[in-house]
User: Which sequence fits this backbone?
């Protein structure tokens, strides 16, 4: 079995600590909050209403919210002051 030098052992320990630090504190938005936030970003113009209607669908999921926001952005339906 190969032995690790002090530097290698220290580097491994630092890597483990960094990976642990990155995994804590990630709290994604709840779907309802994400949907509400994206809906508030969409312009109130009548041609943008379709995006808000899609966000109100009971079949909405996290990936769909991202897709709708991307589509609204490309359609210039995101409020200008955002």
Assistant:
């Amino acid at each position: 079995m190969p032995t690790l030098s002090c530097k290698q052992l220290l580097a491994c320990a630092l890597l483990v600590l960094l990976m642990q630090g990155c995994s804590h504190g990630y709290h994604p938005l709840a779907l309802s909050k994400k949907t509400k936030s994206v809906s508030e970003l969409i312009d109130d113009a009548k041609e943008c209403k379709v995006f808000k209607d899609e966000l109100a669908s009971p079949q909405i999921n996290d990936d769909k919210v991202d897709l709708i926001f991307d589509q609204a952005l490309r359609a210039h339906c995101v409020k200008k002051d955002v």
